[in-house]
Specification:
The structure is a single chain. The chain is an all-alpha fold. The protein has a domain at 1-28. Helices cover 75% and strands 0% of the residues. The protein has 2 helices and no strands. The radius of gyration is 25 Å and the shape is elongated. 0% of the residues are buried.
Length: 65
């Protein structure tokens, strides 16, 4: 009975290992080009500033008619 449990555990571990290997192999192919870190930093900073400015804009109040 223990042998069946160990075999099942090893089989599950093998499946997880194969899936992890496939997932890790697919990541570099799907990633965008690295580019300049400073440029990426500036873009992120701009996006945050735009988001903050949009959040600070007053929304129109609904009419209570």
């Amino acid at each position: 009975m223990r042998a069946i449990g160990i075999i099942g555990l090893l089989l599950a571990l093998a499946v997880v290992g194969v899936l992890a290997k496939r997932q890790l192999a697919a990541v570099p192919a799907a990633s965008a080009p690295a580019g300049d870190a400073r440029e990426q930093s500036r873009q992120i900073e701009q996006q945050i500033k735009q988001s903050l400015e949009a959040a600070q804009q007053q929304r129109p109040m609904p009419d209570d008619h």
